[in-house]
Amino acid sequence: MPDALEVARKGDPMAICNAGWCYFNGIKVPRDQRKALDLWRRAAEKSGNAGSSYNLGYCYSFGIVVKQDDQIASDWFAKYHRGRNTERLEYNVNRSSTD
After folding, report:
1. Reported confidence tier of residue 77, pLDDT bands at 50, 70, 90
2. What is the mean pLDDT of residues 6-35?
């Protein structure tokens, strides 16, 4: 996990999302769900990382670490869907340019 944390410290959005998952579940680091939420928020707000947006929506849906709020959850899930569409478009553009 130290290598992944180092990449996350450098600002890679996917690495930040993955580090949040590790903290949320206590995988090779002490379990710290508040820190996970902070990491996911950073990745989602900084780069629109879809996975982080989904994880935040999930936490707000069920009141995990934060007060349960369906409107905020819905907003994060909407950002997730926009982010996934962007990721798919980028994948397709990159894939077609290498064919």
Report:
1. very high
2. 93
- Any residues with CB less than 8 A from the CB of 85 and at least 6 apart, and which? none
Closest CA to 13 of 37, 48, 54: 48
Q: Scan for tokens 């869907």, then name that residue.
A: 81
What CA–CA distances, in Å, run from 64 to 23, 31, 36, 37, 68? 14, 14, 11, 9, 7
Give which of 7, 13, 74, 79 is closest to 42, Cα–Cα. 13
Helix (H) or strand (E) holding 25: helix 13-25
Q: Cα–Cα distances in Å, from 65 out to 9, 47, 58, 95? A: 23, 23, 11, 39
